[in-house]
Amino acid sequence: EVQLVESGGGSVQAGGSLRVSCSASGRPGCMAWFRQAPGKEREGVATINYDGRIINYADSVKGRFTITRDIAKNTLHLQMNSLKPEDSAMYYCAAWSAQCQLEAEFRYWGQGTQVTVSS
């Protein structure tokens, strides 16, 4: 069993930065960030494998977002720079996937943290 708790969301103006974090219990393996805006489908943002060496990003965030993990502390981070209003969404941490791809199924999910970007 893996439990995930997100933190660090908030509000920022366009062009600003935010960092969201996820504290994990157990052995989360592959981890990822997803987001979902009202009325839209859930979107995979970034994935990172168990040792942090293999990372995937959605095209919409490449060059602006950075996913990292602290293996010793069992935490996951997403540094978001040059934020745009369209980045506004609930951001979810996910863990444990066999394929560790943006389109893969993940077994464990956090409750989410809200990110709001104003223009």
Describe the 3D structure:
- The chain is mainly β.
- It is 0% helix and 48% strand.
- It has strands at residues 4-7, 10-13, 18-24, 31-36, 43-48, 55-57, 65-70, 75-80, 89-95, 108-109, 113-118.
- Strand 7 (65-70) and strand 8 form a beta hairpin.
- The chain is globular, with a radius of gyration of 13 Å.
- The mean pLDDT is 96.
Write a concise synopsis of the structure shown.
0% of the residues lie in helices and 48% in strands. It has 119 residues and is mainly β.
List its salient traits.
119 residues; mainly beta; seven-stranded mixed beta sheet; four-stranded antiparallel beta sheet; 11 strands; 48% strand; globular
**Helical residues, percent:** under 10%
Mean pLDDT, as a whole number?
96
**How many runs of DSSP E, i.e. beta strands?**
11
Q: Please state the structural category.
A: mainly beta
Total helical elements = 0
N-C termini distance: 40 Å
The shape, in one word, is globular
| Element-by-element helix/strand order | EEEEEEEEEEE
